TrEMBL record:
GO molecular function terms attached to this record: cell-cell adhesion mediator activity
The entry's keywords: Cell adhesion, Cell membrane, Disulfide bond, Glycoprotein, Immunoglobulin domain, Membrane, Repeat, Signal, Transmembrane, Transmembrane helix
Top-rank taxon: Eukaryota
Domain called Ig-like: residue spans: 42-130, 144-229, 252-340, 345-430, 441-523, 528-607
Transmembrane segments: 1004-1025
Entry protein name: Neurofascin homolog (chicken) a
Extent of Polar residues compositional bias: 248-259
Keyword field contains Cell inner membrane: no
Length: 1037
């Protein structure tokens, strides 16, 4: 039977917990109006720490703050007994607070107030408790006066200098100092207990002022122990010999901890420090590992040269066996430290305040864990809980409430404790009845975007929890289902807002105590969007960049358009212009268009192109007689790839300081072979070129001097000509500076009469010409040239033909005459003196028709003209005249619909014709006009008119307003008619007419008279109808 009962009890508890879990507590909103009217048990909001250490020089303040409605009253217990504050003049309590202030201006010792304090906050609905606060006064005791004997130790052995600081509260921080200041090294270090450890002692460790110092944090003081003198003895051999003996080496041994094993206990979430300090010579190194697992490297820190292993925020998995090993080349030793992790209580499920409506069920849960497992104790308003209450049941870490009433309101405390500490939590149970209230703003207007999911909020509160329903435009049943979904918190979801969803929505909350309602008006708007996003731009430095952002939005919503660059505001407006762009303007530009309910954004990147930076680090290598390798490092291309490198040079002999282009190379090269000229002292620089332009030149390279050589080039422009009739001047272009190839450049020139078989005459000169004197007139010569310098002779030029000087011709052409003359050309003839027959000459072309010319001929050479020949007169024949050459049509005018058409023509005579002696006989030229009526694309019967040359206008009578005419105008000579020009008139259908006829014949006058007659007729008809209204007619009422 007992076995059955034991198995049934846990099942019953689980069933009860499940049933109570389904009863949801009321969540009280933080609305100020609700909080103001809500009656609430007290709550502790602020308190001092459990282990409270105070500075004796300051007043003591023990904090305890709380809240509740009504405002709670505060009281204290000290060491488990009521603390009567009113009887102690040094103790005061702050107004509307439980915080204690203990002052010592009028005397008293802070130590008299040490003890355990606990604060109680009480109002009409219960009592809340603070933690038990252990108050202690900080202490910094003096170091005891003692006489310390000198420490004598042999060189190479280990040593521990004890510190033994005075016990302070909290414990002091210790450190050692001597004349060499602080002591820390792999060989010498301070232990966690404050002692100074020497793994091995050296002669230089002998000092008279080793002192341990204790620093007390609260009093900000440092106390120093009496100095210790250390004397180091060397081996006996050092006394009898001049050579210092070798100190014997030793295997490692542990100074701390001792033995091969030790144990360490640490609490969860605290800090674990494990220490291993070893002696030995040479100084041992320390290594750590954990048996059965890896060291948690993310939590482990090694300090003091691996002598201390520290783990922060220790957890249960950090327990186990830790091994430290001390090693030197003599041997090694190990020590195991068994770490055990315990835990003070910590929360798994901290109890929280519970608000219930009358007759509702609820529960408080208090779950904690620790090592060992903590004990759970419940209190009711600070007193042990009674197990006889009818509507309350305590089940270990849970209290169940059934059918609570207004009088069930109270504060419950849960205490979880074990040997390492305790936890205390307050949680009140408040039974509340309140009619429904609306918490949101009244008659709120909500604007939403079309086709978006929309939520209409209707926050409310009441106890018991009210039921909420939604209505649209005050009609129909509650909205829930289909397009709508109602949530228990009062929110109505519209899954996709459309234009037909606009309207007024009413939410109604009701419970047994009443009801409340609120309205929300919904407007559906078009989406704000960017229809023309800004485009990525690439701009050259110094130019102007412009971004445009085209926007579409609901016309009833005001919008703002802003531009930002890398999240920093630039300006407002649909376009952004950036003048004189530079690298600082490069980045991502975002256009954001925003209305009061939505926004859209689009981004575009501005890339700024610039000239490349100059190349760097020019280097010369691979030297040769006429070449060298130039290498450089390209500079930043500023986002425009380098397409070309231009190599320039400067030489210091011919044109120092002037940089000249040498060669260009593709942009992917940065090491090139330069072809050089001899006998030049070069230095080079490189210019990078991209699509934007050229970089600044690089810094010059080191100089490179090429050796000399004979000239490679042949002097250009060699010619021979006579400046006088008895000489020949031979000239040429001197070699360029870079073609000299060496010093002492001169030219070797040869000449001789052509086809004479004579030997070559020659001369050597540094000039660029040589004059050969006493030559026959105009005789051909063969000429050649060669450049030479100190290194040798260059190639000879090809032989050219030159001539000596010319003289003035003495004879004129004879028997000049012309033949076959027409209107534009004539054939000329003459006799040469060397040839007795007549020579037929060329034609003279482009003569002006019907003109007279005079002509003569001379013999000429490059320098002189001879005497003139006989003079001949030429008269060209008459020809036809082109219309565009002599005639134009001007000033057409139409006079009336049946009037006349005047056309004038203008003669054109070009100045060039008059200046050439051209004359035109007026009697020989006439003007012909041909007129045709135009009917669509067809021409009517032509009418021909001929006028004398001095007539310049023509008038004809038109046959009708709508008739158009085409005129053909040409000039007549005795030879015939020239080319005609055509003109169609009038030019435009709406061309103005100048009427000069009687007004009675005008169309507008006739139309006006007809309109007046029609108005008179209508008035007569209206008058007749009004006179006939008196008759009787049948009808219905």
């Amino acid at each position: 039977m007992s076995g059955q009962g034991g198995s049934a009890a846990p099942a019953l508890v689980s069933l009860l917990l499940l049933l109570w879990h389904r009863a949801a507590a009321i969540e009280v909103p933080l609305d100020p109006k609700i909080q103001q009217d809500l009656k609430q048990p007290p709550t502790i909001t602020k308190q001092s720490v459990k282990d409270y250490i105070v500075d004796p020089r300051d007043n003591i303040i023990i904090e305890c703050e709380g809240k509740g409605n009504p405002v709670p009253a505060f009281s204290w217990r000290r060491n488990g007994k009521f603390f009567n504050i009113a009887k102690d003049p040094r103790v005061t309590m702050r107004k509307r607070s439980g915080t204690l202030e203990i002052g010592f201006r009028s005397g008293g010792r802070p130590e008299d107030y040490e003890g355990e304090y606990q604060c109680f906050a009480t109002n009409d609905f219960g009592t809340a408790l603070s933690n038990k606060i252990l108050l202690r006064v900080s202490k910094a005791p003096l170091w005891p006066k003692e006489v310390l004997e000198p420490e004598v130790v042999t060189e190479g052995s280990s040593l521990v200098l004890p510190c033994n600081p005075p016990p302070g509260l909290p414990p002091p921080i210790t450190f050692w100092m001597d004349s060499r200041k602080s002591q820390t090294s792999p060989r010498v270090s301070t232990g966690l207990n404050g002692d100074l450890y020497f793994s091995n002692v050296l002669v230089q460790d002998a000092q008279t002022d080793y002192s341990c110092n204790a620093r007390f944090l609260f009093t900000h003081t440092i106390q120093q122990k009496n100095p210790i003198t250390l004397r180091v003895q060397t081996s006996e051999q050092n006394t009898h010999t001049h050579a210092r003996p070798h100190t014997p080496e030793s295997t490692p041994t542990f100074l701390s901890p001792s033995g091969t094993e030790s144990a360490k206990m640490v609490l969860r979430d605290e800090q674990l420090q494990l220490e291993c300090i070893a002696a030995g010579l040479p100084t041992p190194t320390i290594k750590w590992f954990k048996k059965g697992g890896e060291l948690p490297l993310r939590k482990v820190k090694f300090e003091k040269y691996n002598k201390v292993l520290r783990i922060v925020n220790v957890s249960e998995e950090d327990a186990g066996e830790y091994v430290c090993m001390a090693i030197n080349h003599i041997g090694s030793i190990r020590h195991s430290i068994f770490v055990q992790v315990k835990a003070a209580p910590y929360w798994l499920d901290k109890p929280t305040d519970l608000v219930l409506a009358p007759d509702e069920n609820g529960r408080l849960v208090c779950r904690a864990n620790g090592n060992p497992k903590p004990n759970i104790q419940w209190l009711h308003n600070g007193l042990p809980i009674e197990s006889t209450a009818t509507n309350r049941q305590v089940l270990g870490d849970t209290i169940l409430f059934r059918s609570v009433q207004i009088g069930s309101t109270a504060v419950y405390q849960c205490n979880a404790s074990n040997e390492h500490g305790y936890l205390l939590a307050n949680a009140f149970v408040s039974v509340l009845d309140m009619p429904p209230r609306m918490l949101g703003p009244k008659n709120q207007l909500i604007k939403v975007i079309k086709n978006k999911r929309t939520f209409l909020d209707c926050p409310f509160f009441g106890s018991p929890l009210p039921e909420l329903r939604w209505f649209k435009n005050g009609q129909g049943s509650g909205l829930d289902g289909g397009q709508y979904r109602a949530y228990i918190n009062g929110t109505l979801e519209i899954k996709r807002a459309l234009a037909e969803d606009e309207g007024t929505y009413t939410c109604v909350a009701s419970n047994i105590l009443g009801k409340a309602e609120n309205q929300v008006r919904l407007e559906v708007k078009d989406r704000t969007r960017i229809v023309g996003a800004p485009e990525h731009q690439t701009s050259i430095r110094g130019s102007t960049a412009r971004f445009v952002c085209q926007v579409n939005s609901d016309p009833s919503l005001p919008i703002t358009v802003t531009w930002t660059k890398d999240d920093k505001l630039k300006k407002d407006g649909e376009s952004l212009t950036i003048p004189n762009v530079n690298e600082g303007d490069e980045g991502l530009y975002t256009c954001t268009v925003a209305s009061e309910i939505d926004q859209d954004s689009a981004s575009a990147r501005l890339t700024v192109l610039d000239r490349p930076d100059p190349p760097m680090d020019l280097d010369l290598s691979d030297p040769a007689a006429r070449s060298v390798r130039l290498t450089w490092i390209p500079g930043n291309d500023h986002r425009s790839p380098i397409t070309e490198f231009l190599v320039q040079f400067e030489e210091d002999r011919w044109e120092p300081g002037r940089w000249q282009d040498l060669a260009s190379f593709p942009g992917e090269l940065n090491s090139v072979i330069l072809q050089l000229a001899p006998f030049v002292n070069y230095q080079f620089r490189v210019i990078a070129i991209n699509s934007v332009g050229q970089s600044q030149p690089s810094r010059p390279s080191p100089r490179y001097k090429t050796s000399g050589a004979a000239p490679d080039a042949i002097p250009r422009g060699l010619r021979g000509w006579g400046s006088k009739k008895d000489n020949m001047e031979i000239s040429w272009e001197p070699l360029l500076d870079l073609e000299r190839n060496g010093p002492n450049l001169h030219y070797h020139v040869w000449w001789r009469r052509k086809d004479s078989g004579e030997p070559w005459s020659n001369v050597t000169t540094a000039d660029s010409k040589h004059v050969v004197q006493s030559t026959d007139t105009y005789v051909p010569y063969e000429i050649k040239i060669q450049a030479r310098n100190e290194f040798g002779s260059g190639p000879e030029s090809n032989v050219i033909t030159g001539y000596s000087g010319e003289d003035k011709p003495t004879e004129a052409p004879a028997d000049l005459r012309v033949s076959r003359v027409d209107s534009t050309k004539a054939n000329i003839h003459w006799k040469r003196h060397t040839i007795p027959s007549v020579t037929p000459g060329p034609f003279l072309l482009d003569l002006v028709p019907f003109s007279k010319y005079k002509m003569f001929m001379v013999v000429a050479n490059n320098r002189y003209e001879g005497p003139p020949s006989n003079t001949v007169e030429i008269t060209t024949k008459e020809g036809v005249i082109s219309a565009d050459h002599l005639l134009t049509v001007a000033s057409p005018m139409v006079l009336g619909p049946f009037g006349s058409l005047n056309i004038s023509n203008t003669r054109k005579m070009e100045e060039s014709e008059n200046s050439s002696g051209f004359e035109m006989s007026e009697s020989s030229v006439c003007v012909c006009v041909c007129v045709c009526a135009v009917n669509g694309s067809r021409l009517g019967r032509p009418q021909l008119e001929t006028f004398l040359p001095n007539v310049t206008d023509f008038a004809m009578r038109l046959s009708g307003r709508s008739t158009r005419y085409k005129f053909f105008l040409s000039a007549l000579t005795q030879v015939g008619a020239g080319e005609s020009i055509a003109e169609e008139l009038p030019h435009f259908a709406n061309e103005a007419y100048i009427d000069q006829v009687d007004i009675a014949t005008q169309g507008w006058f006739i139309g006006l008279m007809c309109a007046i007659a029609l108005i008179i007729l209508i008035l007569l008809i209206v008058c007749f109808i009004k006179r006939s209204r008196g008759g009787k007619y049948p009808g219905k009422t």
